[in-house]
Amino acid sequence: MNSVRTALSRPVTLVSVVFIVLIFCACLAAPLIAPYSPIDPDPRNALQLPSGAHWLGTDVLGRDILTRLLYGGRIGLFGPVWAVSVAALIGVPAGLIAGYRQGWVDSLASRTMDILLAVPGIIILLTVVSIFGRNTWLTMSVLGVLMSPNFMLLVRGETIALSRELFVDAARASGSRGSRIMLRQLLPNLVSPIIVQYSLAFAIALLIGAGLGFLGLSEPPPTPSWGGMIQEAAQEYGRAPWLIFPSGGIITLVAVAFNLAGAGLRDASTERGVSRTIRAPKQALAVADGTTGGAEDVSTEATTGATGDGAELLTVRGLSVGFATGSAITEVISRVDLTISPGEKVALVGESGSGKSVTALAILGLLPGSGSLLGGSVRFDGMELTTLPERQQARLRGKRIAFISQDPMLALDPCFTVMSQLSEIVRGHHGLGAAAARRRVLELLAAVGLPNPEAIARQFPFQLSGGMAQRVAIAIAISGDPDFLIADEPTTALDVTTQAEILDLLRDLAASRGLAVLLVTHDFGVVADFCDRAVVMYAGQIVETGTVEEIFADPSHPYTAILLQADPHRAEVGKELPALPGQVPLPRDWPQGCRLAERCPLATAACAEQPVELIEVVPGHRSRCIRLAALKAGQHV
Amino acid sequence: MLRIVLRRLLQSIPIGLIVLVGTFILIRVGGGDPTATILGISATAEQRAELRETLGLNDPLFTQLLRYVGEVFTGDFGDSYVSKRPVVAVLLQALPVTLSVTLLAVTVAFIVGIPLGILAARRGGVTDRVIQSSTVLFMAIPGFWLALMLMVGFAVRLRWFPTSGYVAFERDALGWIQHVTLPVVALCSAAVAALCLQTRARFVDIFDQDFIRTLRAAGVPTRSIVFRHALKNAGGTIVTVGGLQFIGLLGGVMFVEQVFALPGIGRIAVQAATQHDFPILQGIVVVLMVLVVITNLVVEIARAAVNPKVRLA
Ligand code: SF4
User: Fold this and answer.
1) Domain membership flag for residue B110
2) Nearest 5°: phi and psi at A58?
3) Which residue on chain B is closest to A392 by alpha carbon?
4) How far apart are CA A273 and CA A262, in angstroms?
5) Which of A32, A62, A143, B284 fits a disulfide with A45 by CB distance 3.0 to 4.6 angstroms?
6) Which residue among A247, A260, A397 places its CB closest to the CB of B216?
7) Which of these, A330, A399, A393, A321, lies nearest to A364 by C-alpha position?
């Protein structure tokens, strides 16, 4: 019911509902408020245009149109109300029982609904009228039966989904009776979708009811009905074209109002649903200790990736990104600085909500629709990307800057074979002919270690395993011979063995092609294993940056320190440790002072006072903490 | 693929039979004595008794039912009570009219609705809001009322089109176009709106997906992303919605035919309903069910053609 309140807080929905209520009340109160008689003719005043005496004019018999509209609403509105109520009274219980009991009850109900759906509705209605005469309530009952599958299918689906949720199981286990569960537990959860369906179905029933009236198959004259009034107007269009507007107009307005009200409520309840259930999976930081095999690589490699030698490939300065929520813009990345030299492998580490992926997408120029750059610069090989026209950015993408995303099963277009999507990309990069492109694709697939490229090329993405799909995605990434690769959690969605293989492949490719890599990850094991330098992010800010060797040996921010101090024996690549209690605060809750203050064991009152700046600890190693001395003094974190 | 088609066909036979039997019983039990309709009120009791005998109305209901179903399967729907012409002949004459209008309307819906939906999804902002508001309006306007306004405006006032009637395409192509234009516009507007809305929703959805980002990151031009990749991914939804809309049009066309006095299935149905001409109504039920089955099959095949997951399943 809360979604009803959410929906009503929007002006459009509110206006629609108020309009609906007013129209219903006016038609119910017709005898009290209507200025004339709906039936008695007044030939002297026939076919008048709107005037003070007749606000909407008069019809061919001199009857007041407004009066007839008000009375006609009794059939025009309550006919559909009846039809949709019948549909709901049949469909809702049938759907509940079918969805809850399953088995043969479900099959029987579903087959019955299949039959009702196959029936050509309008013709059946015509037949019924032909047999039983013009009886609106009977016709509308039949229409209700024909519309009941809409409710049944909806309720059945929702019931099955809800039954899988815990509370029904719990009620079942505690021995509640089925009918009780259905009424007490399931039905209340179905109220919103049923109201949505009711209002959308109402609009349809309204149009069909009016149509029958128009065909002269509703109540016989002189009883007014909206459809019948259009029919009467149609006979006079030569003399009084005005007449077709009031009746058709009111039907349209009511149908619009019901559609808008239904859509408003649906949007409100799905939004609530999204915020309730579909959250991004939380990533805790994974930690590697400094003594395992992975970190030994670091000590040798870290020195080679020297920083600040003046030949940076990528320089990010003061990058800020915001997301629009409603009319407000919330900052999610605050003044991020980043440099990457050719061939260097840099990790961007953080929990989910730290802003690391958004940073990567902002560099690529592929922020999702509601995101926008708030400031800063992204220079790549001397070009300023933030001001580069989209067309030229697109030319850089793939050819100079490539991208690999997290879930390989979602990263490839499911409707095209590996060959057809790769060859399109290859042809775009190199302007090859079809045959040459084919050869190049097969070379690429072999280069990323796929056995039997010919067979893989013929597959659709959903026919591949996760590891194979990620190799295809890597093949796409290297197809344009880029010099910079952004990899967003490239191993997270894979199983542990495959993770190691993919990481090895990336390492080999980076080495043989001299690729610079920005690796976005939440996994310190991967950082130790793969990268030269690390940039640790928290709540949209960089909190520490330095070579991997230094960060592991001498973490200079409480956040990093805590993560790395966690029990080393439990730490390995891919294993996640919930190292800090709590989670990253939402952007709108970011404090003025240090954003870690709430979770930091070293926090003092001073920490919360003002924004903390990033300071250089030793050359090339920076940290955003005012209590560095305390940290270095070994105060317990 | 072939298996899907065959299964669909086999599934629709029992459903069709049940509907057929249902309408037969409804009409025989509730419809009263057809001899009054056939012979008129002036007929004598003997004449009517004789006719009852020849029509087999004195047989048990079940025998009549079996006979009727058997006849339907051999393509014999009996004779009209009123005009005495065979139902099949009447329907065959009316079908091209109805199909002209509905097929054209659904084609227009595809041609106009899909690009509008893509435009709304890609442009966003004011364009999106204007398009969305118009779809809400056009889905709410009663088709026959729109038909009436179009007729008064363009046929009566401006005289650009004839107000009523129909000319077969083979006889006079230009005349055919003139006669069907307004009905098609009136009929398709709601379907255009529905297709536009669904295409828009699907495109917004697809553009949120990872593979679009992969393509953009690989430098694939926007034109190809929209019209090759996104459109193909949206294809399944679009043809499904299109099929449902076509089925809806088969109902809506009844009203529009009435406005423009098009001699199609709908006009015949309304006439039959007022004249209690049950064989015609029953025949139309069968014809419409067959059209629905065919539509669903076409949708199924089209879905398999665009979506490899359906095809390979
Ligand atoms: S500034 Fe204060 S709260 Fe922030 S990390 Fe340092 S000690 Fe912790």
Assistant:
1) yes
2) -130, 160
3) B219
4) 16
5) A62
6) A397
7) A393
Interface residue A403 vs chain B (CB under 8 A): yes
Domain residue limits at B158: 89-275
- Ligand 1: which residues within 6 Å by Cβ? A 558, 594, 596-597, 600, 602-603, 607, 612, 625-627
Encode chain B (313 residues) as per-residue pLDDT tens digits. 777 788 888 888 888 888 888 888 888 877 777 777 777 777 777 887 888 777 777 778 888 888 888 888 888 888 888 888 999 999 999 999 999 999 999 999 999 999 999 999 988 889 999 999 999 999 999 999 999 899 888 888 888 888 888 888 888 888 888 888 999 999 999 999 999 999 999 999 899 889 999 999 998 988 999 999 999 999 999 999 999 999 999 999 999 998 888 999 999 999 998 888 888 998 999 899 889 889 988 998 898 888 888 777 6
- The secondary element (H helix, E strand) that includes residue A374 is strand A371-380
Give domain status of residue B280, yes or no. no
A256, A250 in Cβ contact below 8 A? no
Q: Which amino acid is at B143?
A: G
Nearest-by-Cβ selection for A398 from B30, B218, B289: B218
User: B131 to chain A nearest CA, in Å?
Assistant: 15
Instruction: Kindly state whether residue B186 falls inside one of the protein's structural domains.
Output: yes
**Strands A371-380, A383-384: parallel, antiparallel or unpaired by DSSP?**
antiparallel
* ipTM of the modeled complex: 0.89
- Number of CB atoms found within 10 A of residue A589's CB: 10
3-state secondary structure A211-273: HHHHCCCCCCCCCCCHHHHHHHHHHCCCCCHHHHHHHHHHHHHHHHHHHHHHHHHHHHHHHHH
Q: Is residue B44 part of a domain?
A: no
Q: Report the sign of the C-alpha dihedral through residues B204, B205, B211, B214, in that order.
A: positive
| Cross-chain residue pair B145–A251, CB shorter than 8 Å | yes
Q: How many distinct structural domains can be found in chain B?
A: 1
Nearest-5° Cα angle at B215, B212 to B219: 135
Please give, rounded to a whole number of angstroms, the shortest distance from the CA of A540 to a CA of chain B: 22
- Please say whether the beta carbons of A545 and A534 come within 8 A: yes
- Cα torsion A462, A464, A466, A468: sign: negative
A314 token code pair? 């990528």
Q: Amino acid identity, residue A445? A: L
Query: What distance in angstroms lies between residue A336's CA and the mean position of ligand 1's atoms?
Result: 18
Q: How far apart are the first and last CA of chain B?
A: 9
Give the DSSP H/E element, type plus range, for residue A318. strand A314-325
**B208 contacts A405 by C-beta, under 8 angstroms:** no
CA distance A563 to chain B (A): 30
Domain CATH number, residue B259: 1.10.3720.10
